């Protein structure tokens, strides 16, 4: 018993001088070897493009997929590296970790995602290679987004080694879940279920397994400062502006992508007004919380993902935005403190409120809209293309059932995979910090703080809503 106690509860060693370089070098060399064996250029990126044009009666270079997809790819790429990265800088003493580790796991995750998604989605059976093009790069960014969502739940509490392991496993699980939902069940478009629901429950489950009973010892570092909140708000604006591209990037050219942008645009706008309203209502004297504004204003984009290409009508897109803003803000006000106190889930960024719950809402919206689709709204060809995905033997009820099944698979994959990965990350060999040193950049980064840094009091905290001053009561 003493040996087991010493193994599991001994002092933590955060020195990653050997382990982190070893993992980065070894895994990068493995990526090079696997890319050399399996990965080739897509025909539209290959030097034989001219011959391909002649063989397929293509008359202009403008028909290359690059010109259709690259603007959306730019938007999604900015969301992954700048939007998520800056959003994670809200902690007053963990901004280096938020944006820096976001950079690390994104750069590794997209390489592994290109391989995993290629093996599941686009492995050429003639030469057993993966052909990558613009759509592959966008899908890899989507895969990384699921891991970044999970990272948000564990922000400040795990080591870079744990994050690399979490990304390796998360990308692998994502590729399997994505293949089942998109290729076998044929549902989801903008990723409400595949990306947000999976990533949310994957991260929440890992956070639950890695529960820290003494995390209150680092409560002094858990809050934000005025400047860190401003940087996080810049990340929110990057995500908000580019979210229509996120939901439409890999959709079919034409009316589907066009409709996805409009629906997402409207849903996002409605979620902003709703978030401001509910945030003001939830506090004495109606003071707004920057925590709500940084996060719940994005919930409309998450919830609109699955039904983005569907003819939900503009007013329904606004309704989805209103509902998502309400449940997300309510989650920050009520559910996050409840989950930490009673369910032992320490959700640093509130991913349950921004991703998991709106993702479930998005899956439900997709199922309902599929059930009530009709030829009078879509036309026969439009119905087959937008709702049935080419399956002539499906009814609207069957497609709605497939949507619901996809949502269940995303939740089960996230919880089941997170439980396994969480148990792996509990091993006392990953260099994670002590409870009193969580949310502190100085554990893993060379940091030079301004002399007055310690004198700046926190403005607010994520899991403890800012109490009004006695003079405001």
UniProtKB/TrEMBL annotation:
It holds the Pfam family Ammonium_transp. Residues 64-437 form the Ammonium transporter AmtB-like domain. It comes from the Eukaryota. Residues 451-473 are annotated as: Disordered. Keywords: Ammonia transport, Cell membrane, Glycoprotein, Membrane, Transmembrane, Transmembrane helix, Transport. One of its GO terms (molecular function) is ammonium channel activity. Gene3D superfamilies: Ammonium transporter AmtB like domains. Its main location: membrane. The chain crosses the membrane at residues 20-39, 76-94, 101-120, 132-156, 163-187, 193-211, 223-242, 262-281, 293-312, 318-339, 360-380, 400-425. It is a multi-pass membrane protein. GO terms for biological process: ammonium homeostasis. One of its GO terms (cellular component) is plasma membrane. It is found in: Cell membrane. Functions as an ammonia transporter. May play a role in the elimination of ammonia in the gill. Belongs to the ammonium transporter (TC 2.A.49) family. Rh subfamily. PANTHER family: AMMONIUM TRANSPORTER (PTHR11730), AMMONIUM TRANSPORTER RH TYPE C (PTHR11730:SF30). Homotrimer. This is Ammonium transporter AmtB-like domain-containing protein. It comes from Electrophorus electricus. The lineage of its organism: Eukaryota, Metazoa, Chordata, Craniata, Vertebrata.
């Amino acid at each position: 018993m003493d040996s087991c106690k010493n193994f599991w509860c001994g002092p933590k060693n955060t020195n990653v001088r050997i382990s982190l370089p070893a993992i980065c070098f070894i895994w990068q060399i493995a990526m090079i070897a696997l890319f050399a064996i399996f990965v080739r250029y897509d025909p539209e990126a290959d030097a034989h493009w001219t011959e391909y044009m002649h063989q397929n009666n293509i008359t202009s270079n403008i028909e290359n997929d690059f010109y259709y997809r690259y603007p959306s790819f730019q938007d999604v790429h900015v969301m992954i590296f700048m939007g998520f990265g800056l959003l994670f800088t809200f902690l007053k003493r963990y901004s280096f970790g938020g944006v820096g580790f976001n950079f690390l796991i994104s750069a590794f995750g997209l390489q592994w995602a290109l391989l995993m998604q290629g093996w599941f989605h686009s492995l050429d059976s003639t030469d057993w290679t993966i052909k990558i093009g613009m759509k592959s790069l966008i899908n890899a960014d989507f895969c990384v987004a699921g891991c970044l969502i999970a990272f948000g739940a564990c922000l400040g509490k795990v080591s870079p080694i744990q994050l690399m392991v979490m990304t390796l496993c998360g990308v692998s699980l994502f590729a399997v879940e994505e293949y089942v939902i998109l290729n076998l069940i044929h549902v989801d478009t903008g990723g409400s279920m595949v990306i947000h629901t999976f990533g949310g429950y994957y991260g929440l489950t890992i956070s639950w397994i890695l529960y820290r009973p003494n995390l209150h010892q680092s409560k002094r570092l858990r809050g934000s400062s005025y400047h860190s909140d401003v940087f996080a708000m810049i990340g929110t604006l990057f995500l908000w502006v580019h979210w229509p591209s996120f939901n439409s990037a890999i959709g079919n050219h034409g009316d589907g992508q066009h409709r996805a942008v409009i629906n997402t645009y409207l849903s996002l706008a409605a979620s902003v007004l709703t978030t401001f309203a509910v945030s003001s209502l939830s506090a004495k004297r109606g003071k707004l919380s920057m925590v709500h504004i940084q996060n719940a204003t994005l919930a409309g984009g998450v919830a609109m993902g699955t039904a983005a290409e569907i003819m939900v009508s503009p007013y329904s897109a606004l309704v989805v935005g209103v509902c998502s803003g309400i449940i997300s803000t309510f989650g920050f006000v009520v559910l996050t403190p409840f989950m930490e106190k009673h369910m032992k889930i320490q959700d640093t960024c509130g991913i349950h409120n921004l991703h998991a719950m709106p993702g479930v809402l998005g899956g439900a919206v997709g199922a309902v809209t599929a059930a009530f689709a009709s030829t009078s709204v879509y036309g026969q060809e439009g119905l087959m293309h937008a709702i049935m995905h080419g399956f002539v033997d499906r009814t609207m009820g069957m497609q709605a059932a497939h949507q619901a099944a996809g949502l269940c698979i995303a939740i089960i994959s996230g919880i089941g995979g997170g439980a396994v990965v969480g148990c792996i990350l509990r091993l006392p060999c990953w260099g994670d910090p002590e409870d009193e040193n969580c949310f502190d950049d100085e554990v893993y980064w060379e940091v030079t703080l301004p002399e007055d840094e310690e004198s700046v009091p926190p403005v607010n905290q994520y899991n403890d809503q800012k109490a009004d001053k006695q003079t405001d009561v």
